[in-house]
Design goal:
This protein has one domain. Helix content is about 15%, strand content about 25%.
């Protein structure tokens, strides 16, 4: 996180502090058989983690753009698609408009981990990143089903995407047909 940023100073950073506290996420370290699969877990990726992951896959898609964690103000992070601008939000195709349904469908099928799980029974339209937003002391950085990386008020209906640092002898394999990950040693 940016130097000088004080967790627990504002409402958004108090929640981020809980998301980053590894003691809160220990139940994710064991698989369904009780085998320890992870070294530590947090409640969601930081903006830096998310951007590094996103930027590694976007190279293969000319429609989508790299996104960077940008400097902070006293409340939190900005996002950017280059090295100079600072924005409160940005779409994955580097515009201020929602992605087309075709783009979203393609992205969601190829890269489901970047979009919130939505269904007929779910009102989850975005998930929280473990980073406060520069927009306000009440906002977090979120990723929405529309391809928007931006900010959202802290009490909106947001999902979580916990992150587990797997043990070195554990690997994850994604099955595109069932849309599930399988862990194995």
């Amino acid at each position: 996180m940016a130097t000088g940023y004080s967790l627990k100073k504002y409402d958004n950073s108090k929640c981020v502090s809980n998301l980053l506290d590894t003691d809160n996420w220990t139940s994710f370290l064991d698989d369904s058989n009780g085998t320890k699969i992870g070294q530590y877990a947090i409640g969601g990726p930081t903006l830096e983690m998310w951007c590094e992951s996103w930027n590694s896959v976007v190279n293969s898609h000319s429609t989508f753009k790299k996104i960077y964690a940008k400097d902070t103000n006293e409340y939190g992070y900005y996002v950017s698609s280059d090295t100079t601008e600072k924005q409160n939000y940005l779409y994955m195709n580097d515009t201020t408009d929602s992605l087309s349904s075709t783009d979203l469908s393609e992205l969601g099928q190829q890269f489901p981990m970047y979009f919130p799980h939505t269904s007929l029974y779910s009102n989850c339209s975005s998930y929280l990143l473990a980073s406060p937003s520069a927009q306000s002391k009440y906002y977090f950085v979120t990723v929405s089903y529309t391809g928007r990386v931006g900010s959202c008020y802290y009490n909106n209906k947001n999902g979580l995407r916990p992150v587990v640092c797997l043990n070195s002898d554990v690997s994850a394999t994604y099955d595109a047909n069932t849309k599930t990950y399988t862990l194995s040693k």
